[in-house]
């Protein structure tokens, strides 16, 4: 009896149309005191309404499985990207229904208005598609999907609680990773802003002797092969392979600053994952080091098929720390792990010249043994403030301070260049494209 009561009561909700009808009946009852000619009309209408309510309950509860619903969630979500989710619906009732859907998505999204509606004829199927954009890595808990069904009478709604709690991990941006991988393989990186770099000179990696085609460099003509075959033949060269590319990610408090929902650490993680992927496609070896007040995770450089998954699993767990970076620990780790000259891409952030000066002695030591590229971030808010015209004295002060900080960033680039250290000052949203461009330029110039 208790279960029967729960079945018919806890999942039964009154509709707007029922409240309107009850309001009409109450109004007629009130008017009947002053208008005797209404007679039994209010009672008749109220009786008809009760019969319709019972009929509506019968129609909705006659079938225990009147509607089929399935929510399709990916096994993992991509951080900072629009992830597509689908809700599959099918109507098993012998009449048309109206449905409302509340999907209990993780609290991290802070969405309280995720409500979908649809109308389905008998045996009709529909797919509702929507996107979610996570901005933090970690585990996300999906709850039930709550379905509210109305018959054509629309006096009441029946609720179906479908599904079960599901935990979905959010990994670094693997959706963009696949995009870059495909374009790197097909040499279509220019489609997303990656520049084609003009090669200076030739790589030492000989590939083959081939027939001359228009555009080949005359300096590569192989005269002996030309004499033997009678056609103009040229030597073909490829990029040097198996070079070591290490991404070093700073996890200190300097990387906690947010930008468009993501922290600077998350931008660095997404960029390093994509850079590692492009390096592996180019047949280089990719590695990873994380650093804060002590050395964190370490993935030695390799180019095995499983290397990218190793790097992704490590990056999935990384979080910002609240202490300053121990550059001495970083230098010791670099000297211990990197046994040959490598390209070291150091993702960090400097907000003042004094912050750079504290780290500069260790950066110079690393640059003695490796090709060091320091990547740090442009403060886009300060840049926009410095470009806006000042309206009053307070605006002049704000504009002056913003220009001072923006100028300091440019001074940092000059200071690093003075000591033979490569640098990249970039807005967070353009980090990935600019880093990959710089890597390809370094490969083209054979600087490693």
UniProtKB/TrEMBL annotation:
Pfam families hit by this protein: DUF58 (PF01882)
InterPro entries membership: DUF58
Membrane recorded as keyword: yes
Keywords: Membrane, Transmembrane, Transmembrane helix
Domain DUF58: 208-358
Keyword Membrane found: yes
Bilayer-spanning residue ranges: 12-35, 41-61
Protein's name according to its UniProt entry: DUF58 domain-containing protein
Source organism: Pedobacter planticolens
């Amino acid at each position: 009896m208790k279960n029967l009561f729960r079945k018919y009561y806890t999942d039964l909700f009154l509709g707007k149309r029922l409240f309107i009808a009850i309001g009409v009946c109450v109004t007629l009852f009130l008017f009947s005191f002053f208008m005797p000619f209404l007679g039994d009309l209010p009672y008749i209408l109220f009786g008809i309404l009760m019969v319709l309510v019972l009929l509506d309950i019968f129609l909705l509860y006659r079938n225990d499985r009147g509607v089929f619903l399935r929510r399709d969630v990916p096994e993992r979500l991509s951080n900072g990207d629009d992830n597509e989710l689908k809700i599959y619906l099918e109507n098993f009732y012998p009449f048309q229904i109206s449905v409302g859907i509340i999907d209990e998505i993780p609290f991290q999204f802070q969405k309280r208005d995720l409500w979908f509606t649809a109308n389905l004829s008998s045996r009709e199927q529909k797919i509702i598609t929507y996107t979610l954009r996570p901005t933090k890595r970690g585990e996300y808990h999906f709850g039930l999907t709550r379905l509210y069904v109305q018959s054509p009478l629309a006096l009441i709604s029946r609720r179906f609680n479908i599904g079960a709690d599901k935990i979905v991990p959010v990994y670094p941006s693997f959706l963009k990773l696949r995009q870059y991988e495909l374009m790197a393989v097909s040499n279509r990186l220019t489609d997303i802003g990656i520049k084609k770099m003009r090669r200076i000179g030739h790589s030492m990696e000989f590939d083959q002797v081939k027939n001359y085609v228009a555009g080949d460099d005359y300096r590569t003509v192989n005269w002996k092969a030309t004499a033997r075959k009678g056609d103009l033949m040229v030597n073909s060269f490829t990029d040097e392979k198996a070079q070591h590319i290490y991404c070093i990610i700073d996890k200190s408090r300097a990387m906690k600053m947010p930008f468009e929902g993501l922290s600077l650490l998350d931008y660095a993680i997404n960029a390093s994952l994509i850079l590692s992927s492009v390096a592996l496609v180019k047949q280089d070896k990719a590695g990873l080091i994380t650093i804060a007040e002590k050395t964190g995770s370490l993935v030695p450089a390799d180019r095995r098929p499983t290397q990218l998954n190793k790097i992704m699993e490590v990056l999935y767990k990384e979080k910002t720390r609240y202490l300053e970076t121990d550059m001495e620990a970083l230098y010791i780790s670099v000297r211990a792990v990197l046994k040959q000259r490598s390209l070291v891409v150091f993702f960090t952030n400097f907000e003042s010249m004094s912050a750079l000066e504290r780290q500069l002695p260790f950066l110079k030591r690393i640059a003695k043994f490796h090709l060091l590229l320091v990547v740090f971030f442009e403060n886009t808010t300060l840049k926009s403030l410095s470009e806006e015209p000042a309206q009053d004295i307070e605006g002049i002060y704000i504009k002056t301070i913003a220009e001072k900080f923006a100028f300091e960033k440019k001074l940092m680039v000059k200071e690093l260049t003075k000591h033979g250290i490569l640098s990249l000052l970039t807005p967070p949203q353009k980090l990935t494209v600019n880093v990959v461009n710089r890597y390809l330029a370094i490969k083209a110039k054979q600087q490693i």
